[in-house]
């Protein structure tokens, strides 16, 4: 039964990836503001950049492509459940920069199967957690393979609540499953869950976007912004406010040199 469930999940995410091919291709042309901010966030805690890095749920690999330039010195690997569909997009870009990236098609909940206990100095999980109905299994997979830092981008709230938002985007083709519901988690509870698993340092920052984005013309999901009177911008998709945060979780000291940061 497990194999059947895995096959169903793979088919689902491969179909979603095919629907989003243009989105994944655009990410290589120019680094998104979130990617630039992520690179700055990582550099604020990592001194000399060296070691092994893994991007879990890497899509076509655009974050690896841009971060390899922003934080040079890491040997990168990537894991993506729809890799058979998405990796052919990224491979020509990697070759154009002479980047050797180890890409694996697989499920983030089976990391032991793919990496056999190997640990990484830098682990990324970007935009994955908002689609997961619990983060316990997520942390149980990612923290044990993190020798240095795990960096997560997700929807977090400082209110003492977790939020589950049921999502149906009617602009998607009828034969394509929606990507799934959205989950917004309480940051303090997430921090305590990390600390209970041996986290030595926990850092978080809001992602404050600095560009104006228009709503999608088709009326479906897609990030757009609204500017406040003080000039700051809020991010939305459809009717949903997106409280994006970047979180850094330090599990230990790896061969890289780590700098102290601000909470």
Question: What's the shape?
Answer: globular
Determine the N-to-C terminus distance. 44 Å
Which runs of at least 5 residues are low in confidence (pLDDT < 50)? 256-263
N to C succession of SSEs: HHHEHEHEHEHEEEHEEEEE
What does this structure look like?
The chain is α/β, with parallel strands linked by helices. The protein has a single domain (2-209, 245-250), classed as Rossmann fold. Helices cover 32% and strands 26% of the residues. The protein is built from 8 helices and 12 strands. It has helices at 2-19, 21-29, 33-43, 62-70, 83-96, 111-115, 136-142, 187-196, and strands at residues 51-56, 74-80, 102-105, 120-126, 146-157, 163-165, 182-186, 201-206, 223-227, 233-237, 240-241, 244-250. The strands form 2 sheets. Strands 1, 2, 3, 4, 5, 6, 7, 8 and 12 form a 9-stranded mixed β-sheet that branches. β10 and β11 (240-241) form a beta hairpin. α2 runs parallel beside α5 and α3 crosses α4 (62-70). The longest helix has 18 residues, at 2-19. It is globular. It starts with a helix and ends in a 13-residue tail after the last strand. Residues 256-263 have low confidence and may be disordered.
Question: How would you summarize the topology of this molecule?
Answer:
Elements: H1 2-19, H2 21-29, H3 33-43, E1 51-56, H4 62-70, E2 74-80, H5 83-96, E3 102-105, H6 111-115, E4 120-126, H7 136-142, E5 146-157, E6 163-165, E7 182-186, H8 187-196, E8 201-206, E9 223-227, E10 233-237, E11 240-241, E12 244-250
Helix pairs in contact: 2-4, 2-5, 3-4
